[in-house]
Amino acid sequence: MTGRVDLLVVGAGAAGCVVAARAAEAGLDVVVLEAGGRRASRRACVLDVGPDSEVVARYPAELDGRTVVLPRGRTVGGSGAVNGGYCSATPPADLAGWGPDWPRRYAVGLARAAERLRPRLVPADPVARWVSAAFPGRGVDVAQARHGDRRVTAADAWDPAAAGARVLTGAPVRELRWAGGHAGGTCDGVVLADGREFAAREVVLCAGALGTAALLLRSGIGPATGHPVGRRTEEHPEVLLDLDPGVAPATTVRESAPDPGQAPPALLSRVVRLPVPVGGAVAEVEVRPYSVPLHRAIPGLAPQPHRIGIALMTPAGRGELRPDTDPDPGPDPAAGGGLRVVLDAHPDPADAAALAAATGIVCDRLGLAGEPVASTSQHLSGSARMGEVVDDAGRVLGVAGLRVADASVLPALPRRGPYYTVLAVAEDLAAHAIAGRA
Ligand SMILES: Cc1cc2nc3c(=O)[nH]c(=O)nc-3n(C[C@H](O)[C@H](O)[C@H](O)COP(=O)(O)OP(=O)(O)OC[C@H]3O[C@@H](n4cnc5c(N)ncnc54)[C@H](O)[C@@H]3O)c2cc1C
């Protein structure tokens, strides 16, 4: 066992890098434990989540009666090192529902995140121009976390090691350690998969919405202790629609042999935001004109048609995470097992109606036909929600020495991709963790 440090951060992903770097800059003794060892590709246009990727954990999940795999970054930078990289801030109307103080807290966190990450707009690609032209006034350019062709991750923008934190990679955490030996009460450190123990005044979980839930449940924090971990997760359901090469501009969908010397464009440079009236309410849908077929951006993926996405950004349905029936996490507890993930455990018929209506509108406007394929945005959040599992400073309710600061805690999934918001919220929660140790 090592000596007791001020802060032990589990996971060097998006939130983990923010929390660790800010706390180290404030003079705290910080250790970061990251499951992954290898670095992801630095090329901004590459999403290294394919079948051969060595920088992701793979969580099997149920969706629409079939099994899909949810890849999550398992590397310094976390999912931000393998994601689509588009950065959108949460609209103020969504924040109002988080609590009266959140619009101000979020604005401060976002300003601090923007200063570090500096996301920037990229030129709209031909597919984005073609799709948005069909929806006048609805296209919105989205900023990307990149400098030129190089991806900028949280590990670049908030480098924990450069800030003075000790970063251990290849260090999957198996479980939390409890003073007194029983779950709950006071958390005083963690145990790694190889049995090594680390002691800390406070543990901050930043293992992602899936990794953090798995770790809490494995460590005895869950419904039995009054913490509804993973009970009503949120995700933006997405359907994928084939672009018909006979309809879309030839340059957008032609399967020309990829030129290894030429980087493909950003996967998303612009989205189309559509209000879709359904049953007396108005749903918000995001049309994603992906610039290339996904196998051009994801190494190792089998060739597939060029598709665009239609995502529901205001879903009423919820998912669920439960501990796997096999309580043994295996030799590597952070590889993606340990959880039963059901993305559509609590479906809402209004969601299906909204997606069907949106698909109809998109097909009409673009002259497309064909069956949409059910998919997911990879935006899962809310597995250890504020107000239910943690308080609004991220402290696990009724437990001392334990905080959560990643996508798990979002009180409600915003109507935008969550990446930028996770960084902004991590800035805010880092400030609380630092104040708590001062
Ligand atoms: C393929 C993909 C594409 C996406 N595209 C976009 C996008 O374009 N725009 C957008 O807004 N959002 C996007 N997202 C979502 C966004 O990336 C996430 O919401 C965000 O990264 C979540 O940050 P986090 O800190 O909660 O978790 P992560 O960034 O996933 O970090 C978690 C870290 O914890 C580590 N970890 C897990 N378990 C353990 C353990 N037991 N011990 C030690 N370490 C552990 C992991 O290895 C990882 O490094 C995408 C996500 C994915 C997967």
What order do the helices and strands come in, and which of them pair?
Elements: E1 5-10, H1 14-25, E2 30-33, E3 56-63, E4 66-73, E5 86-87, H2 92-96, H3 102-117, E6 120-121, H4 126-133, E7 139-141, E8 143-144, E9 146-147, E10 150-151, H5 154-157, H6 160-163, E11 166-168, E12 173-179, E13 185-192, E14 197-205, H7 208-218, E15 237-242, H8 250-253, E16 270-278, E17 281-288, H9 294-297, E18 307-312, E19 318-323, E20 339-346, H10 349-366, E21 373-376, E22 399-400, E23 402-404, H11 419-437
Parallel strand pairs: 1-2, 1-14, 2-11, 3-20, 13-22, 14-23
Antiparallel strand pairs: 3-4, 5-8, 6-8, 7-16, 9-10, 12-13, 13-14, 15-18, 15-21, 16-17, 17-18, 19-20
Helix pairs in contact: 1-11, 3-11
> Could you say which structural class the secondary elements and strand pairing correspond to?
alpha/beta
CATH class: Alpha Beta
Distance between the termini: 25 Å
Bound molecules: flavin-adenine dinucleotide
Helix content: 10-25%
Q: Indicate the low-confidence ranges by residue numbers.
A: 253-257
CATH topology: FAD/NAD(P)-binding domain
Keywords:
single chain; alpha/beta; FAD/NAD(P)-binding domain; 438 residues; 8-stranded mixed β-sheet; binds flavin-adenine dinucleotide
Short description:
With 438 residues, this protein is an alpha/beta fold. Helices cover 24% and strands 27% of the residues. It is built from eleven helices and 23 strands.
Walkthrough of the structure:
With 438 residues, this protein is an alpha/beta fold. The chain is 24% helix and 27% strand. It has a single domain (5-437), classed as FAD/NAD(P)-binding domain (3-Layer(bba) Sandwich). The protein has eleven helices and 23 strands. Strands 1, 2, 11, 12, 13, 14, 22 and 23 form an eight-stranded mixed β-sheet that branches. A six-stranded antiparallel β-sheet has the order 7-16-17-18-15-21. Strands 4-3-20-19 form a four-stranded mixed β-sheet, covered by helices on one side. The protein binds flavin-adenine dinucleotide. Flavin-adenine dinucleotide binds next to helix 1, strand 4, helix 7 and helix 11.
